[in-house]
Sequence to fold (118 residues):
Amino acid sequence: MDHLRADRPVLVLWSAAAAEPAVPDKSRPRIVIEVKGYGATGSKMTDIIGDLDAIIDAMRRDTYLLFITDGMTWKNRLSDLKKIVDRQNQGKITRIYTTKMREELLEDLKDLKSMIGI
Fold:
């Protein structure tokens, strides 16, 4: 994702407890992107609920949270996926993407950056 380089401006955070990219930076993020990919089902998929809740609790109200996942293995974890969709329906997650939704993500990022003036 070339558009997510630090000089554009995005900072990639490599902490397990923090969302990965933050725009414009981690001190005052307006767009936060959490990315999770799974090759198998298991407890790690349930752990994302807690990770997302920690990000949601730490976010300011004017911050947009985008969640990207692989989408494939969620078929076996529908109850966990429902919890994530519930958070989107409550307005806590702005949008959920699968890896096949790259163009929608890019368009939404452009729109959000324009909307918030960065």
Q: What stands out?
A: The first strand starts at residue 11 and ends at 12. The CA atoms of residues 49 and 83 lie 7 Å apart. Helices lie at 43-58, 78-89, 102-116. Residues 1-19 have pLDDT under 50 and may be disordered.
